[in-house]
Specification:
With about 675 residues, the chain is of the alpha+beta class. The chain is about 25% helix and about 30% strand. It folds into 3 domains: about 220 residues, Beta-galactosidase, Chain A, domain 5 (Distorted Sandwich), CATH 2.70.98; about 240 residues, TIM Barrel (Alpha-Beta Barrel), CATH 3.20.20; about 90 residues, Golgi alpha-mannosidase II (Immunoglobulin-like, Sandwich). α8 packs parallel to α9. The chain is globular.
Length: about 675
């Protein structure tokens, strides 16, 4: 046992397993273990085999956090193509979970991309893998699928492990510069004679490394502390590295998708624009969604009703005082598109030369669609022309870039070998940013999160919402990434601490209409309350000509409360307890209580926990911790229901029971000191 193992808050206890590098030879993948060279020391350790050398060292951030930095060098006299590096490590995990009953260990999964499932798991829960491969292709990561085995959990970019009955937690996460995809597999052994451990994996795709060349791997952060605090520190650390500055106010907008879907018409678009202008609705962006192009991939070949009208509509939107926005899926193409037929060389293929299907979309004529090779110089020329036309000729200054996962599909052979899968997507976003120019707002959607850090202004953080609670086909095919309000709310809360640090979290559109919807009034209000609490963008997607004064008044209230929440942070208190958090605080002074289940239930509020989190935030000083413990223990809090006006006075030291809540319902309270 190395002598440094017990001198630090975060330990590194090497396991019997050794690092393994996976190399690519033609169509074959071969794994080669690495052996420790000499004795391991905390400030320097080396593993080696005939092909590569892996060196690493630890650096203390503070007394509760540290980073592990790794470098990989090609020792061979020929170039190698690396697919992945697996690095098993306990790193103090066994000592952390020793005092936790095995049934109470909770694991947080952060999914691969915008739509992927993000939630916490308990030891006996099975992380389900979809039955259909094509569902995994467009909703998850084919290179890191769920295990289907209780006790073996995986996450992307970062994870948190905690006692579901306490606040102490352990975090492992990837740091800048986000050049590889990073997976954390957690093997929880409930028998004492076996050790629980992490398996850390860097996914390169099939990156080529020349002889003697060294690749720096993204540093790994290990941290221990309060569930919320360690995530705050983690995302703050990333934000400092990328120097991202979040806009001061959340974006306000209108989008065509959730009312018209792909059946849009310029006259409908301009009619909604005129109504918004007449009502003097203060919006940032007016966005035209899918349906203007003849086919996905043929972006400059417009449907007849849109020909010669794109610039006209962008100009009208600008004259109304809004930023013109346009939807595009730049890295995929419909199988029936002219691009796919005339330029098959743009389509991503595997080692056998077969086209890789990225997914199936019924709104695109029920056709399959393919991923595109952004590293192909000819496709880059086409993409640049498309972006140049949309921004500089038509006049659109907001680009919603969708289905971005199509650029970096697993098994794809890219034109360029010298960059990783993650770097391929980052390159694509850099091209779009470069061609669009300064001042253009770019949103990522259907996007693997890691390459989006530092490249997008907004990020969709959940599956598509919709005018319904959930699609029950999701249960049949075993995925939590199906569209619907429930799954959208879940991801919005689970990923809430990314907001304003990595980008503006987009919780997806708000539907205020009362017709053409399957949402009950309780489900509709839960959606509204979640978007308010998020403090993120508010984009309505309706035929606003049907809105009466009551809906417009409701919209203004939503925006006012959302703007207040934008000044604070959204904290899901029961993040590690529920699949979907049901107790959510915004530190500007709001409390959301949700019943996401299918049965009515009575909810007890732990006011001591809620007030403690608010005291720790001190955003507005309203809940600053009292220096007099006797006085603090007697403090009372006023909860005012923002919709009914009902007021409840509760003690901050005890619990409070709410009246029985209906399924899918919620309460939103404004918190005041009594």
């Amino acid at each position: 046992m190395p002598d440094f193992a017990y001198n630090h808050a975060i330990f590194w206890d090497p396991l019997e397993q050794t690092p393994v590098v996976q190399l690519k030879y033609g169509i074959l993948r071969r794994q080669y273990p690495l052996q420790l060279v000499g004795s391991a020391r905390r400030n320097r350790f080396v593993y080696r085999n005939d092909f590569v050398e892996l060196s690493g060292s630890w650096k203390e951030i503070d007394d509760r956090s540290c980073t592990l930095s790794l470098e990989l060098t090609n020792l061979h006299d020929l170039s190698i193509r690396i697919t992945r590096l697996t690095f098993p490590a306990q790193n103090g995990l066994e000592k952390f979970i020793q005092g936790i009953p095995s049934r109470d260990v909770a694991f947080l999964r952060n999914g691969y991309q915008s739509w992927s499932t993000a939630r916490s798991y308990r030891p006996k829960e099975k992380p389900l893998r979809p039955w259909l491969q094509i569902v995994s292709q467009f909703s998850s990561n084919m290179a890191n699928l769920p295990s289907n085995i209780p006790g073996i959990f995986s996450s992307e970019m970062y994870t948190v492990i905690s006692d579901r009955n306490g606040r102490d937690a352990f975090l492992v996460g990837q740091s800048a510069g986000f050049k590889q995809f990073f997976y954390i597999d957690f093997h929880l052994h409930q028998k004492k004679h076996q050790s629980s451990f992490f398996k850390l994996t860097f996914d390169f795709g099939r990156q080529l490394i020349k002889p003697g060349s060294t690749v720096k791997l993204d540093p790994i952060i290990f941290s221990r502390g309060d569930i919320t605090s360690i995530q705050d520190q983690y995302f703050d650390h990333i934000a400092r590295g990328i120097r991202y500055k979040a806009p001061k106010t959340p974006l306000r907008g209108y989008g065509t998708w959730y009312y018209y879907y792909e059946h849009i018409h310029p006259d409908q678009i301009l009619a909604n624009l005129a109504e918004l202008k007449n009502k003097q609705v203060p919006l940032s962006v007016f966005q035209i969604d899918d349906g203007y192009q003849s086919q996905v991939g043929d972006w400059l070949d417009l449907k007849p009703r849109f020909k010669n009208r794109m610039k006209e509509m962008a100009d009208e939107i600008s004259r109304a005082g809004y930023t013109p926005g346009l939807w595009i899926a730049p890295f995929v193409a419909n199988s029936t598109s002219q691009l796919a037929k005339i330029h098959p060389d743009y389509i991503l293929k595997n080692e056998y030369g077969r086209k890789i299907t990225a997914g199936y979309n019924p709104t695109w004529g029920g056709n399959l669609y393919y991923g595109l090779d952004i590293t192909n110089p000819r496709y880059e020329e086409y993409l640049r022309k498309v972006i140049r036309t949309m921004v500089h000729e038509w006049g659109f200054r907001f680009l919603k870039c969708d289905f971005l996962f199509g650029a970096c599909l697993r098994t794809a052979v890219h034109y360029r070998f010298d960059i990783s899968r993650a770097e391929v997507l980052r390159l694509g976003m850099d091209i779009i940013r470069d061609e669009a120019g300064p001042g253009v707002i770019i949103e990522g959607c259907g996007m693997p999160l890691v390459p989006g850090i530092g490249t997008v202004d907004l990020m969709r953080v959940g599956p598509d919402t919709g005018p319904f609670w959930v699609k029950h086909t999701g249960k049949l095919i075993r995925t939590g990434a199906m569209m619907g309000v429930r799954n959208s709310i879940r991801n919005t809360f689970v990923r809430s601490l990314m907001h304003k640090r990595l980008w503006q979290n987009d919780p997806d559109c708000l539907m205020l209409r009362k017709n053409r919807t399957k949402l009950s009034k309780y489900e509709r209000h839960s959606h509204i309350n979640a978007i308010i609490l998020s403090g993120g963008p508010v984009l309505i997607s309706d035929d606003v000509r049907q809105f009466d004064d009551n809906i417009w008044n409701q919209y203004r209230m939503i925006c006012e409360m959302n703007a207040e929440c934008a000044k604070g942070r959204t904290i899901p208190i029961d993040l590690m307890v529920q699949e979907t958090p049901e107790l959510v605080v915004n530190t500007s002074g709001y409390l959301g209580v949700f019943n996401m289940g299918d049965r009515a239930k009575t909810v007890r509020l732990d006011m001591a926990l809620i007030s403690g989190i608010l005291q720790g935030s001190e955003e507005q000083g309203l809940f600053r911790k009292d220096r007099n413990p006797q006085k603090s223990g007697q403090a009372r809090m006023l909860l005012e229901d923002v919709w009914s006006g009902e007021k409840l006075t509760v003690s901050t030291a005890g619990t409070h029971t709410l009246r029985k809540m209906r399924p899918h319902s919620s309460n939103l309270f404004r918190i005041r000191k009594d």
